[in-house]
Amino acid sequence: MQEKGNISIHTENIFPIIKKFLYSDNEIFLRELVSNAVDAVQKIKRLAALGQYQGELGSPLVEVSLDEEKKTITISDNGLGMTADEIKKYINQVAFSGASEFVEKFKDAKDANEIIGKFGLGFYSAFMVADLVEIQTLSYQEGAEPARWVCDGSTEFEITEGARSTRGTDIILHINKDAEEFLSKYKLEEILDKYGKFLPVPIKFGTKTTTEPDGEDEEGKPKTRQIEVDNIINTTNPIWTKAPTELKDEDYLDFYKQLYPFSEDPLFWIHLNVDYPFNLTGVLYFPKLKNDFEMQRNKIKLFSRQVFITDEVKDIVPEFLMLLHGVIDSPDIPLNVSRSFLQADSNVKKINSYITKKVADKLQELFNKDRKSFEEKWTDIGLFVKYGIISEEKFNDKAKDFALLTNTAGENFTLNEYHEKVKDLQTDKNGSVVYLYTTDAAKQDSFIQSAGKKGYDVLVMDSPIDNHFINHLEQKLEKTVLKRVDSSVVDQLIEKDEQNEHVLTEEQTEKAKQVFEKAISKPGYQVEVVALHPDEMPVTVTMDEFMRRMKDMAKMGGGMGFYGQMPDNYKVAINGNHKLIGRILAAGSEEEQNKLAKQAVDLALLSQGMLSGSDLTAFVSRSVELI
Length: 627
What we know:
The protein is of the alpha+beta class. Helices cover 38% and strands 21% of the residues. The protein folds into 4 domains: 2-205, 2-Layer Sandwich (Heat Shock Protein 90), CATH 3.30.565; 239-370, Ribosomal Protein S5, domain 2 (2-Layer Sandwich), CATH 3.30.230; 403-493, Rossmann fold, CATH 3.40.50.11260; 506-626, Heat shock protein 90, C-terminal domain (Four Helix Bundle (Hemerythrin (Met), subunit A), Up-down Bundle). Strands 1-6-5-4-7-3-2-8-9 form a 9-stranded mixed beta sheet, with helices on one face. The radius of gyration is 36 Å and the shape is elongated. Pfam families: HATPase_c_3 (PF13589), HSP90 (PF00183).
């Protein structure tokens, strides 16, 4: 048997295009060829199960071997095998229409997956790294003869009688000079571990040394000996292929450690398993979230029939779920997947919605089942839930029933519970309920205490995403506004109809304003004399809620850059009812008035962490002098 011919691709430009990917995604050749070998093994098992193959199956196996001297990599399987006619059908006829348009479209492409996947060219990825590819194969069919196919990367091929004596296929790659990095045991093992760690058929790569029991020594102590065994690089039945009823918590935790060896244990997990209207399995873990978004992302691994595809899954899962860890496996997502496919595919959109619903249902279940435990985990999952509420409307609809607000006393409330708690005391004269919050309870303690004296409650909003969450709450909650507790003096945070009486006359009020404006003598500070309780601070420096919020969002890159460029402006509230103000006005000289006023302003700035440098030094010196 001998035959020569040309591969039916209607153009000689196909191989240069395939080879052009050799410097970016060239490692996928091994994923493609090993996946093909696994498919061949699984198919013979199915034929045997259906009674269409009566021969000896043997133990299913795919083997990858390296010969550094000959500069070859061989992928062998004991699967279906091929006849010479099947080689011609499946290997030679790379048939697709419009070859010239294809060449033109992909000549500048950068993504190997795009070309390999679009036209089913998995086998031809071999030519990304090899300048000669040989197939030795023997079909399972009764009476089949072994066949050999060889191609040097041109469009010419040769088929002759093969040398294989057992069912299956060997793909032998003669590695070219540009790809000699793959003639390394460690490099191949790294790629196999990346793409084939959970393939459903054992993958052998060389051997490894292990120990086994070897009787007892003279003292009766157990002995061991070292032996060489097959190095099987994969786990063929990972937990996401099993039913949740088969698994214990330890199984999920062990698998998590396998995926993320240096991570803390997760808080809990969700086992995904759906077969209609699409196929999807997987396990998603809720990690202990730190306040660094980027550290948490890209930890979900996407598989197709247990073959690793990518850990960039943002088109498959909603943005906020990128903070989860774990695996998703769907045969409905092709192995060679491109970004444009993910964005357009209807199954991907359904998967996205399904996962969102499953996550929301799991959180609701945990909340309903054991609220105390849920509240204990809120520090870790609150960031994630708030992110989901802000970014995904469907998740927001479900999450509003289990999202929690936490106050400075460490108490947790659902959104409805908190509204009921504060509505009577914290409704302003316009009928709006005012939620007060702190971003730094220690730094803003004096303001929190002032609010407490009025009976007001203060929420803690100190996560990186709370600025956006606050805006979201104002949009979603009817007649509700949120104000940072240090954004104004306490009487102006929640304006009521009743007003405190001024102890100062109009003349004294105007005089006090002039004294303090002169003492500050800096742009951006607006002085106002107000009537507060005599126990409140004599001077309070605040930034307007709206302006401060816009500036905070500008710092986070929230599209508010215009506000970030604006100069800072502060309100200086002088408590005209405080005895210190009367003392300043009664001071004998203008110099004494200025000194006391300056001291009171600096004290207010110091309490806000806004006094530094020479101003702080002057304050300390003045304090010593006044003592």
